C-alpha cells in the first residue's frame, strides 16, 4: 500500500508531457522550454498560464514575437538543410542516370558490332546457298530448254508440212472462186457499161432533136417579128413625122421660156449682188464710225482720269454730256449695223434661192436640149 501511495504521488507530481503541436506552436510556453536544461516542460511556476494572469498579457505578447522570430529562423535553417540534402540526392540521381546512359551506349555499340558480325556471316551463307541454287537451277533449266526446243522443232516441222498441204488446197479453191467471181463481175460491168452507153446515146439524140426544134422555132419567130415590124413601121411612118414636128415646136417654145426666165433670174441676181455690195459698204462705214466713236470715248475717259481734280463742275457736266452723246451715237450705229446685217442675211438667202432656181432651170433646159437632139435624130 505504501508503495502504491508513493507511486501515485509520484505520478501526480510528474508533469504532463506536451504534444508535438504545443512544442511547435510559438503561442505556447512549451515552445521556448523545449531546449531549456533547467526548467523542463511541465507544471512550472516560472511559466504560468497567461489566461490565469491577465496582467502579464503584454509580456506574453513580446515573448510571442520573440518565439515567432525563433520559429522563422528554425524554419529557414530546416529549409536550407532540406535543400542541401535534396540537391545531394539530385546529384546522386543525375550521376546514376549518366552512368546508366553510358552503360546503355556501350551495350548498344557492342550489340551492334555483334549483330553486324552475325549479319555478315548470314549474308555469306545466304550468298553461297544462292550461288549453288543458281548453278543447279541453270543446269536443270538448260536441260529442260534443250528438250523443249527439240520438241518444238519437231512440232513445227509437222505443223509446217500439214499447213502447207492445207494452204495449197485452200489457195487452189480460192483461185477457182476468184476466177469465177471475176468472170461474173466482168459480165456485169460490161452489161452496165453497154446500158450506160446506150442511155447516153439516146439522151444525146433527144437533146439534139430538142435543140433543133427550139432553134427552128426561134428563127421562125424572129422572121415573123421582123415582117410585122416592117408592116407597122410602114403604117406609122407618116404619123410619126407629124408628131415629131409638133414635139420639136413645143420643146423649142419651152426652151425659149426657160432661157427668158434664166435671164430674168440673172438680172435679179445682179441687182441683189449690187444691193449686197452697197450694204457691205454701209456696214464698213458704220464700223469705221464705231471705231471713231470708241476712240473719242477713250480719249474722253483718259482726259477725265487725268484731270479728275482740276476740272470744275461745268467741265465735268460737259464731259458727261459728250459721253452721253457718244453713247447715243454708238447705240444708233450698232442698231444700224444690226439692221444692215439682217438685210444682208435676207439678201444672201434670196441669192441662194435664185442660184438654186437658176440651177434647176438650167438643168431643165439641158434636158430639153437632149430631148430635142433625140427628136432630131429620129426625124
UniProtKB/TrEMBL annotation:
Family annotation (PROSITE patterns): IQ
Keywords: Calmodulin-binding, Coiled coil, Cytoplasm, Repeat
GO BP, sorted A to Z: establishment of meiotic spindle localization; mitotic cell cycle; spindle organization
Compartments, as annotated in UniProt: Cytoplasm
Cellular compartments per GO CC: cytoplasm; spindle pole
Keyword tRNA processing in annotation: no
Annotated region described as Disordered, given as residue ranges: 1-24
Keyword Cytoplasm included in the entry's annotation: yes
Protein name: Myosin motor domain-containing protein
